[in-house]
Amino acid sequence: MQQQSPEHVEISGEAYRLPITLRQSEPKLARLPGLLLMSTLAALIVVPQIGLAVYALASAELRAALAAHPIAAIELAVAFTFWAGLVCWPLRNIILAMASDRIIDIRNGEVMVVDRTPFSTHGWRMPLVTYSGITVHLRTSLSSVLREVVLVHPDPRRSVILAMAEQIGKREILELCRILGLPLLRPDAPTGTSRPSGGHKFDADLAPA
Questions:
Q1: Strand partners of residue 125
Q2: Is the pTM of this model over 0.85?
Q3: Cα gap 189→164, rounded to integer Å
Q4: Biased-composition ranges for Basic and acidic residues (predicted)?
Q5: Which of 54, 44, 38, 30 is nearest to 88 (CA)?
Q6: Claim to verify: residue 60 and residue 133 sit in the same structural domain
Q7: Would residue 112 count as lying in a domain?
Q8: Are residues 123 and 81 in the same domain?
Q9: Which of 24, 32, 107, 196 has its C-alpha lying 20 to 30 A from 40's C-alpha?
Q10: Which residues span the domain enclosing 90?
Q11: Burial (CB count <10 Å: 0-12, 13-18, 19+), residue 54
Q12: Domain total for the chain?
């Protein structure tokens, strides 16, 4: 399957043979405009305010003026917090998304998922036999329509996106069903493929390389 999706996917091993190992990550180029925009806003808005705050703390005159007008000091602090949060929080999320990835490893009758960020690594595993099957959903955006291949679990938190592409052949889907030993489900099967939480967790050392 040719991968053309919001998630960059690398497949280790042969596409139609177990084990299957996928590495999913955000495309860097797609995030670059947002990163440049928020970095520019941070430089224009937040950095000058930090400089002003440092100058105010260093100036005895300004400290005295702020102490004499506590309401004005509170208003300035609230304004600084607002602008810093408005700019820095989205910037943080963009940087985290660019530096994070997900490993999906299917082997020995188990599905193992590891979510890695610069600050933490969380993982879980589920027996492959507990999965209901495979389904294909359509994901639309302003620029394209993508087909999303999902490994469906009765617990929506355990459903896993295996691939996304503009075109995915039925033969490829049926072959994937065959090697996983799972049926092809209707497209309206509930998946809930958001980042999972809870479940059978394990140490980061057990994550596939």
A1: 112
A2: no
A3: 17
A4: 200-209
A5: 38
A6: no
A7: yes
A8: no
A9: 24
A10: 31-98
A11: exposed
A12: 2
